[in-house]
Design goal:
- By secondary structure, the chain is an alpha+beta fold.
- It has one domain.
- The protein has a 4-stranded antiparallel beta sheet with strand order 1-2-3-4, with no helix packed on it.
- It is elongated and about 65 Å long.
- Keywords: Membrane, Transmembrane, Transmembrane helix.
Amino acid sequence: MTKYEKIKIGLLGLFMIGFLFCLYDYSQNGRYISSETEFTRNIIDTRTGDVYRLISEEKIKIENFKSKR
């Protein structure tokens, strides 16, 4: 294997790692949904079903959460 082929494989590997990292970051978008009402501010984790209440700083766990996927 020549030096050129090693460099080509290394650059291809770095490009693939960067591409997969970008896809992972893209998949995290939309995971957390913020909802604000007059009295409460909540953040909902759509992947696990957890609800975080920001005013009282507590986490509400939904036991029988089922994803639509």
